[in-house]
Amino acid sequence: MGKNLFFKGVFYGAIAGGVLSLLDKKTRQDMKVNVKKAYEQVSYAARHPKEITDNVKATAEKIRDTIEQVSEDISYITGKVDELRELTPQVKEIVKETKSTFSNHEDSDVEELLKEVNVEEGSTDK
């Protein structure tokens, strides 16, 4: 029985608070505008239920398409990350080999190697 009185008290308190807040002229005007807008929206929805249903379906379809696109994008990015993970050890090895090669040669030898590489690259581009 205590529960029943509690909810009644809350309900009556809300009504009393609402009525007291309407003593303010600005609040009354705002409420009048908001109630009018809400009434117009509800009456429009009641007169045009198919349009509302179609709009909801179209929105749901757009959301579904967006989710699918994001999922595809995530899969693509994940694939690229996996490729990078596979390539990183190979690139590290190439860098080590290159560093080792250059550190084993004198400066003049390095310049000669660079010239050879440039010549080889130039011939493959043509």
Would you mind describing this structure in some detail?
- The protein is mainly alpha-helical.
- It has helices at residues 2-21, 25-47, 49-104, 107-125.
- The mean pLDDT is 84.
- The protein has four helices and no strands.
- The longest helix has 56 residues, at 49-104.
- The chain has a domain at 1-47.
- The protein is elongated.
What is the topological layout?
Layout (H helix, E strand, L loop, with lengths): L1 H20 L3 H23 L1 H56 L2 H19 L1
In brief:
The protein has helices spanning 2-21, 25-47, 49-104, 107-125. It has 126 residues and is mainly alpha-helical.
**Average pLDDT rating:** 84
Radius of gyration: 37 Å
The number of helical segments is 4
- The count of DSSP E runs of length 2 or more, i.e. the number of strands, is 0
Secondary-structure content class: mainly alpha
Oligomer: single chain
List its salient traits:
single chain, 126 residues, mainly alpha, 4 helices, 94% helix, 0% strand
